[in-house]
Amino acid sequence: MMKLQYYGSLAVLLLLPVALACADTDFDFFYHVQQWPGSYCDTKEGCCFPGNQKPAADFGIHGLWPNYAVCRTVDEDGRPLNQSKCWPDFCNASDPLDPSLIRDLEPDLLRNWGTLSCKSKESTAFWSHEWTRHGTCSGMDQHSYFLAALEYKARFNLTRILLDAGIVPSEERTYCLSRIRDAVAEATGSAPNLECNRNERNETQLYQVYQCVGVDGRSPVRCLVAMDGGCTGMVKFPAFCATETIQVMR
Ligand code: AMP
């Protein structure tokens, strides 16, 4: 009996961290979304850099977004929603980003999660939006949320994965969309969803890569949701040139 009680308490103790980690994760998986700066900048709107410093030709993080496997049509109390909801957002208005909590991550964030927007040119504004809209629904605290996104990017280096598969940024070449998806699937074990935008010549180009990640924010999982990301069978993967940016900023 004593022994049973001991093992029972041990089981409770062992399960407690799992239960706590899952306590407020009312979603099914994360999208870890990264964007190609060449495609962000190579548009009518163009882009701007914080401190006018051009970042490296590397994918940048857009966000780590909690998502539902199936869009919801009723709220948590069973009441019908006006519009179906495919992800939770803005989960805690009383928890705005406190930059002092992520100070140690700032150099890493500036390198890997920098703003490209000409509206603010302030990376903190971008991080604050991502935290308020998505991070507050992640079940993580602010530091854990940004660290998880940075660690996942470092673990699966998309730029390197594509380069190793012969998918090189180029002004001239176009690539088979399935070749891009396959390269990421082979390297990570999970086929991503892809989103495209259009350049100034109205050509379709790879814009964002959505990798599916478990609710722990660490492990790749199979993407359960198909996405129409506006891509075509053949897409551009443009070189990251700063010239169009300089025009925007004058
Ligand atoms: P979300 O609400 O998470 O879907 O993010 C969309 C918002 O993020 C829009 O306001 C975009 O302008 C902004 N955004 C997307 N990429 C960037 C970027 N690289 N730098 C700054 N803002 C961005």
Automatic annotation (TrEMBL):
CDD domains registered for this protein in UniProt: RNase_T2_euk
Gene Ontology molecular function terms on file: ribonuclease T2 activity; RNA binding
Record-given protein name: Uncharacterized protein
Alphabetized Pfam families for the sequence: Ribonuclease_T2 (PF00445)
PROSITE patterns noted in UniProt: PROKAR_LIPOPROTEIN, RNASE_T2_1, RNASE_T2_2
Catalytic residue positions: 62, 130, 134
Annotated signal sequence range: 1-23
Homology family: Belongs to the RNase T2 family.
Species whose genome carries this gene: Eragrostis curvula
Alphabetical keyword list: Disulfide bond, Signal
Cellular component aspect of the GO annotation: extracellular region
Alphabetical list of PANTHER family matching this protein: GENOME ASSEMBLY, CHROMOSOME: II, RIBONUCLEASE T2
GO biological process per UniProt: RNA catabolic process
